Amino acid sequence: MSSRTLSAIEVITLLLQASVVSSFLQTTTYPLTVVDKFTIPRTFENIATRHHGHLIVTSVTSSTLYQVSPVEEDETVAIANIARRTRLLGIVELEQDVFYVVAVNASSQRYSWFKIHLEVANITSAQLLNGMCRLEPNNNSMLLIADYAAGNVVKLDVETGAYEVIIDETSMKPLATGLQVAINGIHVH
């Protein structure tokens, strides 16, 4: 048996290999906490985390996307349902609150991806937003939204999140007596 001297590169390589192997052998225990219990769906597939810590989860048994609060009990909300699909698989967040989800129709095995923008704008002055429509037929970024309680119309730019009240008429406000009717559905023709 002959002995040979290892070069510096071989020694460094062996040390790196030993370091990698030993790091895989170490285990760390983290505390587990039940954040919610579900009856339907029974299984989840993938998880993404929003900027404020809430979890967005997909399920192989449902076409509904769920948001789960990791700190507040019973704070699970269905936030989107993808029509004509039976399962949601992968999910990733590419920008803050902009998620891409892989969805499949199990009977046709048709796979698609969907872009889901969870929050475009937080309209802090709103009281009770309801009816909504496009500002113009060929405009894909401007919406009009009726504020039932305030009795006004808000214009929202879905690309920037900028908004402003553009119509504020007495005739759209809730009535002082009788049926409390105000602006509700809104359409542009």
Explained architecture:
This protein has about 190 residues and is mostly beta strands. It has 2 domains: about 45-115, no CATH class; about 120-189, no CATH class. About 10% of the residues lie in helices and about 35% in strands. The strands form 3 sheets. Strands 1-2-3-4 form a 4-stranded antiparallel β-sheet, with no helix packed on it. It is elongated and about 90 Å long. The protein starts with 7 loop residues before the first helix and ends in a 22-residue tail after the last strand. The model has no long low-confidence stretch (mean pLDDT about 80).
Poorly predicted runs are: none
Number of helices: 1
Main pleated-sheet profile? 4 strands, antiparallel
Shape: elongated
Query: Strands of the biggest beta sheet: in what spatial order?
Result: 1-2-3-4
Q: Report the end-to-end length measured between terminal Cα atoms.
A: 92 Å
Proportion of helical residues = under 10%
Cα-atom Rg, whole angstroms?
26 Å
The overall pLDDT average reads 82
Number of strands: 11
Keywords:
single chain, 189 residues, mainly beta, 2 domains, four-stranded antiparallel β-sheet, 1 helix, 10% helix, elongated
